[in-house]
Amino acid sequence: MSVYKHYKMFKKGKNWCCMAIATLSVAVGVLSLSQHNVNADTTETEASSISTNTENTQNLSENTASLTMSTQNQNLQVETVDASKTTQNIKSINKTQDQNPQAVDQKQAQSFVANYAVVSPKAENSTLQSGWQTENGNSYYYRDGQKLTGQQNINGKDYYFNDQGQQQKDYFLNQDNHTYYFQSDGTRLNDGFYNNWGHTYYFQADGSRLDNGFYNNWGHTYYFQADGSRLDNGFYNNWGHTYYFQADGSRLDNGFYNNWGHTYYFQADGSRLDNGFYNNWGHTYYFGSDGARWDNQFMNNWGNVYYFGNDGALVQNQTINLGYGDLTFDDQGRLTSNNTFIGSIVNGAIRGWTQHQILPSLTLAQAILESAWGKSTLASTYHNLFGIKGSYNGMSVNMPTYEEYGGRMVLINDAFRRYPDNNASVQDHTDFLIKNSRYHNLIGVRDANTATYLIRADGYATASTYTNSLRNVINTYDLTRYDRVAFQL
């Protein structure tokens, strides 16, 4: 709606006054009026040079706005009076304005000065919110008037805002199969450790928690489990190996671990040494298949018997006594004897027990008795220590021998087995007893007296004194000590 002002001069007392007539016009298509009344609020505006005086106005009608100018008062006051505006009233006002156009023009031509202010509506403040804002105790971040949501990087730091835009603090976020932690100040924990619930967690450079992975720092390796917690004082098994992570979480590399009464060794790569030898400080140590070091324990390997002492070191060039007789070990740690002949066959005799459970003391006594301590022609030349007849892998030799028949000794010639060395003879002796069913009652016998009786009864020798001769050799040279060794293998 537009207001057109026409000024008309009249005399009031000694003063000439100017009266403004307001004309209302309606823009076609913009304002549509009905028969109902429309009310407008009263607004007052003051200017520096014109005053409105309701007493000095000419009443046009109830539907017109009146303005009065006083040359004596230079303050302007505009008052809009509530009126009912109908189509008929608007037409009447326009008609009144058109009656004296010349008079209005003449009055406007009069010389006078009128200062007035033009008041225009102010536009609503359109400045958009930006940056950090606090609302009802929650922190938000605005960009272009919009609240940010999700993970955001602001000034080089990472934050998380929920779907309502609220910043999350001391908060875990699970997203895309990863876990993130936002600290008490709201910043995401990147490349740092978090301690809670008695555990330690590591969040990587991208903020994701390290799950089921290794972390290397400060010259050490650490492992974080599937739930993200660091493995402390525990074992980790992978790639066919076992690893140990200490109380501070660092992997034990090139070090010893003691527990459950045993000692374990973890190698330079952190893997536990299982079923292997370790050499240090001038000694040799062995760690079994379970990783435990062998202490006070015999080993039967490579056809020989070895012993590791109470400190785990291999016994070398020593004679020790474990409570059942002296045991001598050579410079390579192999079981031997102060008696050269016994030392040459003792490991083979023990192997006869570990393989087929033929008592070692019986084997040793028979070898001593049958070969005259390895000095007989059959033994010294052909390595046949037991006087076994027949052939060995097609090898044999005819030798004179005495046999007892009816209490009378008879000299005969017979074929005897020929061997490449003494160890082959000892092994064949065990096989001979196992393959001949008449000797099966010897298998597993652990008592020397019983074994020496059975071997004669089964027909191995015809001499009536054979059993007693074997027992004398066993007792004289304390051969049962080797039975005790064999029983521990």
TrEMBL record:
<keyword id="KW-0732">Signal</keyword>
<keyword id="KW-0378">Hydrolase</keyword>
<dbReference type="InterPro" id="IPR018337">
    <property type="entry name" value="Cell_wall/Cho-bd_repeat"/>
</dbReference>
<dbReference type="Pfam" id="PF19127">
    <property type="entry name" value="Choline_bind_3"/>
</dbReference>
<dbReference type="Pfam" id="PF19258">
    <property type="entry name" value="KxYKxGKxW_sig"/>
</dbReference>
<dbReference type="GO" id="GO:0004040">
    <property type="term" value="F:amidase activity"/>
</dbReference>
<comment type="similarity">
    <text>Belongs to the glycosyl hydrolase 73 family.</text>
</comment>
<dbReference type="InterPro" id="IPR022263">
    <property type="entry name" value="KxYKxGKxW"/>
</dbReference>
<dbReference type="InterPro" id="IPR051056">
    <property type="entry name" value="Glycosyl_Hydrolase_73"/>
</dbReference>
<dbReference type="Pfam" id="PF01832">
    <property type="entry name" value="Glucosaminidase"/>
</dbReference>
<keyword id="KW-0677">Repeat</keyword>
<dbReference type="InterPro" id="IPR002901">
    <property type="entry name" value="MGlyc_endo_b_GlcNAc-like_dom"/>
</dbReference>
<protein>
    <submittedName>
        <fullName>Uncharacterized protein</fullName>
    </submittedName>
</protein>
